[in-house]
Task: structure prediction
Amino acid sequence: MVVANPQQTTGVSQKATQQRPASQMSELEVLIRARYPLVYVISWEEQRVVGEVCRIASRLGKKVFEWSITTGLVPGGTACVSTRHKDAATEDPLIALDKVIEDTEPALYVFKDLHGFLRGQNMAVVRRLREVAFALKSTYKTIVMVSPLLELPADLEKEVTILDFELPNEQHLAALLDRVIQEVKDNPKVKIELNPTIKAKIIDGLLGLTIAEAENVLAKTLVQNKGLDEKGLDVVYQEKKQIIRKSGLLEFYEADVSLQSVGGLDLLKDWLLKRAVGFTEQARRFGLPAPKGVLLLGVQGCGKSLSAKMISNLWRLPLLRFDVGKVFGSLVGSSEQNIRRAIQVAESIAPVVLWVDEIDKAFRGAKGSGAATDAGTSARVFGTFLTWLSEKKKPVFVVATANDVSMLPPELLRKGRFDEIFFVDLPNEAERKEIFRIHLAKRNLDPAGFDLDRLSAASIGYSGAEIEEAIVAGMFDAFYAKQPVTTEGILVSLQQTVPLSKTMSEEVDELRRWAAGRARPATSQYQPRQQGRVLEM
Result:
């Protein structure tokens, strides 16, 4: 990336600069104009940050200096391979900070490796930064610290302003794609076949990547496909999956569950179908907001997780599974940073479906005595997540599943966090027949050759997962006996299984009592359990 020389003039007069509308300024420029002494920018893209700082400095008539542990304090834009401007003495951060105080001219200083000293709690550096912050308040100098991770000791919390540097947006990526096309258009070995639709899809696919990552993906596409065309989308998506995996917090899932492969849940399906158009531009013009999310409560094994995959397939949106357990790191402050990073990645590739499985277990520490046992980490992480649910602007549809409502903090259930709360109960008679039909056909067995009425009657109180396991067990018995799979064989498997609704009947009853009047039923034939038995329609 070419970084503008901060010494070059842009042709913008000082008067015009002073009158520049605030709406056109980046947040970083606003902080610099307001003479904030220390700004901590969280970003993996050092060069983009340096480029933005150089552009701001050019508009304000300031110099730019960069500091790293290998070059010391050098003029902005100095090539990393150049040793002409290298100042070995200022490789020591204390000496570099002393020089910042001594300089009298207005300038911006980009410090790239300072977070390593803050992570190690180098008290000399921490103390000097506090002194620098006080000394720069009455000057036209600002220190911009750049780091991919937030490493901020408590001593500096009141002195440093934290700023998240957004990943490239559609405009940045469109400019990058145009530049790549311009560079290769005269190469006879490279074919460029991009109409506006395919071009827009490639740009959407690149969202969530840094400029460097996007450049690599486009270069790989050029090498692999000998050009840029619709095939490039596959390369972009495959590479994006790898990048998402590297985050360690999000997992890219293949959405291979269709609407027809989920038995029952007609009310939930109808609700989803009506909101399938909620992410379109026509919906925005109509005045509709993008759907926020849905919380699925219910008995284990009744299709809550399956529904998350179904939503992704139905809406043709990527599905990311959020492993909240990995959020809680061993380092103090890393958990809060992890959830912010996961949210940033999810928003960067929106529209997307974000699946938070078993959220009741993930945030159990946020309620009751659990918050005290982990020094409040769970509560802080949960608070960050709740705030984002209420205030998120990007079209990230959150699908959260839960089995134990007693572990859910009441704040999560408040209206505004999710569009709707659905209760997924044990399947009724019609749903059980449909589930048997789906799983038999899935295993190349003709449902017409089985007595679905008998199977449904014999499986009262069974969940969808338990019905599937009974079919598999019956198939194993038949395969071992070298006999065909029959209704009688599956009935035997059902009789040998004790469903969860019996082993945990008290918990299931309590869950149903709680859901009555508090959650919307996922099926139109749902009725609460009464007098110790499941009522059928």
